């Protein structure tokens, strides 16, 4: 399929929100049911974000029919979130209460009249039917298709228990199963709350001025170019550019930074940010579905649908594990009686093995952790674009930083101007006139300095301008050829640099400044030292990373001396200087050879190749640049490195929790299965082992909501 075709299909897919999805297995069944609906060509369920994408014609009623087996509720993606009933009031939990009451009454009757009496048996049977009705419908359907999932295993176990006269245990299993499913629903909803809360950040209406009229308009009807009036204390509903007013905006919702930022005319502002003190008029620049906040929500939802490597392993494992458990249970039920064992005792043991063998805890062990971690990160201004990147970030051993714009502010400033005969204004005018044609970031520093000094460099006529790759530029001014570039360029031109100039250059480079030289083919006329200011957070971030055992490397195109001065100031463990963009790429490959897991942090524009070559590419300032959001695996929404140690901490914690979950799920199964040997495994223990494991695994994953900086 061509890219064009794929795009077309993507656009035709309509999204709906799904309420009530609790397990990956149910999501797969729901997806298949939707695919079979008349008029539907394709369907895709995103379990993490709880959404279904449908291509073709269908209605919400039809979709709810397809999800009736789990009592799923469907609503249009754009619809406001409906307030959920409190957990204890939910309809699906009422049958659990009824079933439990019947169980207690039957137990009491059993004590009065004896367990074999008809009254307790009827009570238990009613309890089983009320509590397990929907379970049996699913289980028997699956059994007819030879699809052995959890519902099938539980159905066989409960019906088997009733057949061999263990009515009380059958009823207890039904209730414990129903309770655990309800709790699982509750914890899964909790894990998804991070995204739901992101959706509520931006208002659904805004005050728009059209002509002389001001009116409240729903965000779907706001056009690009509309003027949005934002009063103090209000949140912005759309992205745009300030056209009137000055105020401070709290951008925590987008960037995770709690310190308000001052915004004035021509500054970019984002939907979901809070206007603190002044009245702002904002010209809308993006439609509601294209705002930065919408992009974040979309990317987070996509990320949660991505399978993490450990999830892929678990799914594969469960595929073989479930049939193996069914065969094992059958052998336990049939083989010992053939050699003189008691049929009802061994059938009971076989049923208990079926229950304990449910792979539920195992299957849910990874997705809940991934959904929770990615949701938490998004609320803290970090976009992690998938479970795989979350896990990879937890494995990182080394992180390379692009110097300019990442460790430094990326705005170079002229600090020194050195001439031998005091005509610095005249020479600065020539330098600025030549550099006007250059795209190099250092050129802008020279131009800014010339403007500050009030020099008229625009009037100077330039001829034969030519760029000398990686070294500088040359041009003719008043019929004389001038060169502006690095000291290396003049060493090539002149063979060597005069010793007093050489000393000047070395001195300035040792202070961490980059030296640019203006001269002719015969002599050096002017030295200009330029420095890039260090970000306040850089030193602290590097120190935190070094403390947690991550090797930090600084990559820069600067010369060795300048790089060493800055590297020392910031505290990185290694410095690589004089690098062209392709050298950065090669160095990342080299570093991967040494460490295997290497991160790269850049501003996402000129670092794209290196970001792509690293195991985890981290882009800074994602809120303003689409490139950063597109090319990186992780985007720090603020233009601030301080989120990086938090991201590593969260990823490592997620990895640890996933490992704990998988180990615990398998260990508890193993222990329960060993109880079969002496015949100690009861249905009670089996269901507690299975449900207890599922709940503990889910609750363990929810600890990721608590990870803070």
UniProtKB/TrEMBL annotation:
It holds the Pfam family Hydrolase. The chain crosses the membrane at residues 117-136, 156-179, 320-339, 351-375, 656-677. Its main location: membrane. It is an enzyme of class 7 (translocase). Its EC number is 7.2.2.21. It catalyses: Cd(2+)(in) + ATP + H2O = Cd(2+)(out) + ADP + phosphate + H(+). It is found in: Cell membrane. The keyword Nucleotide-binding applies. Residues 12-75 form the HMA domain. The keyword Cell membrane applies. It is a multi-pass membrane protein. PROSITE patterns: ATPASE_E1_E2, HMA_1, HMA_2. Keywords: ATP-binding, Cadmium, Cell membrane, Ion transport, Membrane, Metal-binding, Nucleotide-binding, Phosphoprotein, Translocase, Transmembrane, Transmembrane helix, Transport. Belongs to the cation transport ATPase (P-type) (TC 3.A.3) family. Type IB subfamily. PANTHER family: CADMIUM/ZINC-TRANSPORTING ATPASE HMA2-RELATED, CADMIUM_ZINC-TRANSPORTING ATPASE HMA4-RELATED. This is Cd(2+)-exporting ATPase.
């Amino acid at each position: 399929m061509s890219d064009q075709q794929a795009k077309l299909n993507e656009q035709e897919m309509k999204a709906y929100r799904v309420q009530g999805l609790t397990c990956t297995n149910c999501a797969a069944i729901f997806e298949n049911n939707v695919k079979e609906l008349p008029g539907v060509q394709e369907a895709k369920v995103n379990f993490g974000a709880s959404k279904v994408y449908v291509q073709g014609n269908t209605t919400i009623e039809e979709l709810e029919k397809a999800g009736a087996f789990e009592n799923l509720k469907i609503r249009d993606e754009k619809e406001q979130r409906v307030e959920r009933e409190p957990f204890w009031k939910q309809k699906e939990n009422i049958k659990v209460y009824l079933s439990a009451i019947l169980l207690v009454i039957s137990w009491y009757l059993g004590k009065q009249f004896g367990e074999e009496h008809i009254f307790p048996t009827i009570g238990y049977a009613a309890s089983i039917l009320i509590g397990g009705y929907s379970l049996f419908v699913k289980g028997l359907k699956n059994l007819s298709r030879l699809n052995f999932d959890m519902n099938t295993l539980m159905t066989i176990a409960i019906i088997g228990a009733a057949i061999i006269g263990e009515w009380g245990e059958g009823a207890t299993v039904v209730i414990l199963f129903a309770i655990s499913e309800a709790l699982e629903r509750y914890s899964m909803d909790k894990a998804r709350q991070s995204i739901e809360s992101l959706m509520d950040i931006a208002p659904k209406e805004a005050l728009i001025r059209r002509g002389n009229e001001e009116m409240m308009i729903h965000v779907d009807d706001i056009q690009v170019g509309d003027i949005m009036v934002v009063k103090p204390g209000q949140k912005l509903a759309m992205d745009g550019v300030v056209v009137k007013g000055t105020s401070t905006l709290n951008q925590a919702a987008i960037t995770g930074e709690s310190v308000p930022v001052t915004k004035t005319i021509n500054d970019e502002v984002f939907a979901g940010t809070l206007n603190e003190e002044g009245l702002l008029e904002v010209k809308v620049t993006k439609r509601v579905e294209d705002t930065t906040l919408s992009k974040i929500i979309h990317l987070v939802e996509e990320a949660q649908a991505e399978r993490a490597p450990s999830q892929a392993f678990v799914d594969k494992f469960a595929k073989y594990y479930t049939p193996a458990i069914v065969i094992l249970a059958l052998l336990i039920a049939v083989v010992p009686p053939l050699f003189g064992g008691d049929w009802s005792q061994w059938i009971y043991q076989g049923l208990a093995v079926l229950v304990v063998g449910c792979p539920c805890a195992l299957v849910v062990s990874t997705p809940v952790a991934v959904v929770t971690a990615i949701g938490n990160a998004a609320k803290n201004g970090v976009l992690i674009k998938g479970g795989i990147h979350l896990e990879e970030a937890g494995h990182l051993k080394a992180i390379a930083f692009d110097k300019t714009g990442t460790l430094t502010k990326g705005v170079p400033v002229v600090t020194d101007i050195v001439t031998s005969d005091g005509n610095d204004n005249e020479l600065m005018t020539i330098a600025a006139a030549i550099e006007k044609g250059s795209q190099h970031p250092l050129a802008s520093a020279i131009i800014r300095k010339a403007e500050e000094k009030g020099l008229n460099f625009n009037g100077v006529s330039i001829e034969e301008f030519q760029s000398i790759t990686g070294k500088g530029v040359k041009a003719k001014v008043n019929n004389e050829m001038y060169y502006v570039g690095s000291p290396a360029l003049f060493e090539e031109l002149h063979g060597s640099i005069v010793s007093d100039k050489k000393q000047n250059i070395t001195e300035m480079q040792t202070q961490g400044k980059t030296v640019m030289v203006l001269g002719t083919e015969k002599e050096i006329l002017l030295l200009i030292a330029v420095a890039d200011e260090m970000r306040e957070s850089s030193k602290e971030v590097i120190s935190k990373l070094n403390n947690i055992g991550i090797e930090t490397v600084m990559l820069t195109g600067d010369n060795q001396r300048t790089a060493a001065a800055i590297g020392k100031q910031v505290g990185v463990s290694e410095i690589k200087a004089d690098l062209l963009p392709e050298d950065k790429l090669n160095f990342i490959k080299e570093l991967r050879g040494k460490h295997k897991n290497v991160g790269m942090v850049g501003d996402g524009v000129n670092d794209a190749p290196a970001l792509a070559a690293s195991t985890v590419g981290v882009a800074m300032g994602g809120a303003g640049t689409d490139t950063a959001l597109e090319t990186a695996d992780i985007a720090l929404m603020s233009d601030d490195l301080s989120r990086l140690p938090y991201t590593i901490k969260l990823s490592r914690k997620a990895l640890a929790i996933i490992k704990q979950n998988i180990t615990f799920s398998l260990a508890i199964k193993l222990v329960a299965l060993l109880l079969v040997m002496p015949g100690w495994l009861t249905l009670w223990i089996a269901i507690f082992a299975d449900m207890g494991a599922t709940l503990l695994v889910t609750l363990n994953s929810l600890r990721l909501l608590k990870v803070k900086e």
